[in-house]
């Protein structure tokens, strides 16, 4: 599990706006926190969340949430970095869907035909 702050910092590193060990500015923290909330709302609308909006994010989906969030805030990054972000974001929802499907456990018993 990762906190929203941990995910936020990973997004900023992905965008090249924060080096490891640095602290984000208040503006950066607020902007990326808003972007994470936007990604959460989008994933929730698609039925792809298994965590609360205020809770920790499951480890398995963290890289994909980072990718989607970075994509949403990728304006102003270099062309090479943008291409890497687009590549990761392009498969993120599919990967989250696969992860959630693998975690699904039916509450129903076997059906007699």
Total number of beta strands? 0
- Work out the helix count: 4
Number of domains: 1
Give the end-to-end Cα distance, rounded to a whole number of Å.
41 Å
Mean pLDDT: 91
Taking the sheet with the most strands, its summary is: none
Class inferred from helices and paired strands: mainly alpha
Low confidence ranges = none
Specify the helix fraction band.
55-70%
Beta content: under 5%
- Topology order in helix (H) and strand (E) letters: HHHH
General form:
globular
Oligomer: single chain
What is the radius of gyration? 16 Å
Structural notes for this entry:
The chain has 113 residues and is mostly helical. It has one domain. 59% of the residues lie in helices and 0% in strands. It is built from four helices and no strands. Helix 1 packs across helix 2 and helix 1 packs across helix 3. The longest helix has 25 residues. The radius of gyration is 16 Å and the shape is globular. The model has no long low-confidence stretch (mean pLDDT 91).
């Amino acid at each position: 599990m990762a906190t929203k702050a941990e995910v936020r910092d990973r997004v900023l590193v992905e965008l090249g706006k924060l080096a490891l060990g640095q602290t984000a500015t208040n503006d950066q923290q607020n902007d990326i926190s808003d972007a994470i909330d936007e990604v959460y709302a989008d994933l929730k609308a698609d039925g792809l969340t298994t965590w609360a909006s205020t809770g920790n994010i499951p480890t398995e989906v963290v890289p994909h949430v980072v990718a989607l969030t970075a994509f949403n805030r990728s304006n102003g990054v270099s062309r090479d970095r943008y291409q890497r972000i687009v590549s990761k974001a392009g498969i993120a929802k599919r990967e989250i869907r696969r992860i959630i499907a693998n975690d699904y456990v039916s509450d129903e018993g076997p059906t007699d035909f």
